[in-house]
Design brief:
single chain; 8 strands
Length: 659
């Protein structure tokens, strides 16, 4: 690595200082008052104790944090009623008791969540095991709003004798404004950058244009091998080609790295960093609690997908250079072990989690390692330095319609890998058999639910066979202790989202990425490549949508990132094929965009991932911001942007971490 100059450090600090000052200044002004944030346990404790009024002063208002509002209930009835509620996020959950409203005792306000619809039911307890329904309503509360509910007997009809309207005492805030402001700031910075770059090329680096020197515009042509098997510039024209502007013209007019692959990888990783840092506290930048998809659920699977694409290109290049399969196998084993150990001892031991008795064994890098090993091992066995020759003329019974050369050519990328496809069918079949037919003690066969409040009879069946296998292999103490369903479904058993059973379907996702790479190697025309990618997108999306029945819940195989369900993998593959097609057209075919700054992130993916994990909760990457979406978004965006700038700086220093 080249020596770090003072001027280079000054450039980096200039960018970071400018961005952080502008972002924090604007975003933190969006919400006037910073609120001391209670923990989730404090909120729960308050709700459990709110009927013990002697512990609180009358009229005390609970403290609001992100995604909460205040509700106060008033009644004109002459008897006590009970308030029961449940969030729409908690699928199949029974309502939970919130409070009792007695007309003789002043009621206290309590906190309600604002991210999802709240189902509220008011009932009268007859004290004989029965109750009478008073009101039932669904309400989406606004963040930091203050509401009052009035229970009265002025119903609209004889059948509906009661009325329970909800009125705002204080209007809620628009929590999405910080996102809009951040977007405008980023667009403004990009426009400033483009304007100054134009000045750079117009005026040049003269003594009167010293300021422009702080903007590193000139790109280096030296691009080295990327992480996890991305192609290198020494590849032949069959692998990494200068892409022609015509969709029918072969891309064989030179040798240049396909930036769209690095851009895809870097974009996925940048969003992953942002999500891991908190995503501004927004629910759609957090993982789905159980079934369903959010932005946070997309990025890691996309990284797995593009890893498969890189494997195809890298192994073809190495075989063309004469590297033996035994050497390839040794390289695969080395990378697998290094990735696994990095995840086990570097990532999983953060924040003092360094006890051998409670060390989490699975993890993100461990999942990457095992997935890489499965798919790379297949490619070690099945990859070839050239496409297999299907120009021979079969004789006799072999001269069937489907075996004629003209019929094989359009699908030769699949035919050439028929053995790998058979193996993946076996892997997926094994996954389905274990998922739906493995007998889990005290749980129904084929159970895919989160347990907890959604299924009181099977409270500790979280994840069904997937959870059972991980707890049996690793024991409860060595898997993830705070899974996503714990906050909503109140689950009590640990669950590993990067477990063993899900590794089988993540291998399928990586293999589909491998297939995307084989399309690049087999078909030189841009139109043929994009057309096949979009065809795969339609096929995988249709099958995935059919398996989940086009719904978040109740499908045959629901979309579930915790389980890495088959429908989840296929739907994410659909999105990945589409995104790869878009990146390929924009970056490599039309060359409307160089891929910067994301392609630099993609070329140092391992360094950025490990670095952002180790520097979480450390200045200047993160700091104690105000407990609002604006404050949280500011620190998360600055931390993410800083890692992007580090990747850009390392790229210009020609430093790349590879394993």
């Amino acid at each position: 690595m080249a020596a770090v100059s003072v001027k280079t450090v000054g450039k980096l600090l200039f960018f970071f200082t400018f961005f952080s000052t502008v972002t924090v200044g604007w975003l933190d002004q969006l919400e006037v008052k910073a609120i001391d944030s209670p923990t989730d346990e404090e909120i729960l404790q308050y709700q459990l104790q709110r009927d013990s009024r002697h512990h609180h002063h009358m009229g005390e208002v609970p403290r609001m944090t992100m995604d909460t509002a205040i509700l106060k209930v008033n009644t004109s009835l002459d008897y006590a009623v009970q308030i029961w509620a449940v969030s729409a996020e908690c699928h199949k959950c029974n309502m939970s008791f919130m409070m009792e409203v007695d007309p003789s005792i002043p009621t206290e306000p309590f906190l309600v969540q604002t991210t999802f619809m709240t189902h509220i039911s008011i009932v009268k307890d007859n004290h004989d095991g029965t109750n009478d329904s008073i009101c039932s309503l669904d309400k989406l509360f606004g963040e930091h709003g203050e509401y009052q509910m009035f229970i009265n007997a002025n119903g609209p009809s004889q059948e509906n004798k009661f009325d329970c309207p909800v009125y705002p005492d204080k209007d809620p805030i628009d929590s999405n404004i910080p996102i809009l402001v951040a977007f405008c700031i980023y667009v403004g910075l990009v426009l400033i950058f483009l304007a100054v770059r134009q000045l750079y090329y117009t005026i040049g680096r003269s003594q009167y244009a010293w300021f422009i020197g702080y903007f590193p515009f000139r790109e280096t042509d030296r691009l080295v091998n990327s992480d996890l098997g991305a192609p290198s510039p020494s590849s032949t024209a069959t692998e990494d080609q200068t892409v022609a502007n015509s969709s029918t013209q072969p891309a064989s007019q030179g040798i240049r790295r396909l930036r769209s692959l690095d851009t895809f990888r870097g974009l996925s990783l940048a969003v992953m960093v942002f999500v891991n840092y908190g995503g501004g506290g927004y629910w759609f930048f957090k993982h789905a609690r159980w079934n369903g998809l959010t932005v946070a659920d997309l990025v890691f699977p996309w990284f797995v997908f593009i890893m498969g694409t890189s494997i195809a290109l890298s192994f073809r290049r190495l075989l063309k250079k004469g590297v033996s399969r035994l050497s390839l196998l040794w390289k695969v084993i080395q990378r697998t072990v290094i990735l696994f150990l990095l995840g086990l001892f570097i990532i999983n031991t953060k924040k003092g989690h360094n006890s051998w008795y409670t060390l989490r064994i699975p993890g993100v890098l461990q999942r990457l390692a095992l997935t890489y090993f499965i798919v790379a091992l297949m490619e070690v066995i099945g990859a070839t330095a050239e496409d297999r020759n299907w120009s021979w003329k079969p004789r006799g019974y072999l001269s069937l319609y489907l075996l004629q050369t003209s019929r094989i050519a359009p699908i030769r990328d699949i035919v050439n890998s028929w053995g790998q496809w058979l193996f993946m069918i076996v892997v997926v079949t094994l996954h389905l058999v274990l998922m739906f037919w493995l007998q889990v003690p005290n749980c129904p066969i084929g159970y895919l639910g989160p347990g907890g409040l959604s299924d009181i009879a099977h409270y500790n069946c979280t994840g069904g066979a997937a959870g059972y296998i991980d707890r049996a292999v690793f024991t409860d103490d060595h898997i993830y202790q705070h899974p996503t369903p714990i906050t909503v479904y109140k689950t009590e058993v640990p669950f590993e989202p990067e477990g063993l059973l899900g590794t089988l379907t993540s291998a399928l996702l990586c293999f589909l990425g491998l297939q995307a790479g084989k399309i690049l190697l087999t078909y030189p025309q841009n139109g043929a490549r994009v057309g096949r990618w979009l065809g795969w997108a339609v096929a995988t999306g249709a099958i995935g949508g059919l398996l989940c029945n086009g719904r978040q819940e109740e499908g045959w195989i629901p979309l579930n990132k915790n389980l890495w369900s088959l429908s989840f993998v296929l739907v994410l593959s659909c999105f990945a094929f589409v995104l790869l097609s878009v990146c390929y057209i924009i970056v490599d075919v039309k060359q409307w965009w160089t891929g910067a700054p994301f392609y630099q992130v993609g070329m140092n993916s391992i360094l950025v991932y490990i670095g952002h994990e180790l520097c979480a909760d450390k200045l200047p990457f993160q700091w104690a911001a105000s407990p609002t979406h604006a404050g949280q978004l500011a620190t998360d965006l600055v931390g993410t942007t800083l890692w992007v700038l580090i990747a850009v700086w390392l790229h210009y220093k020609k430093f790349y971490l590879k394993i």
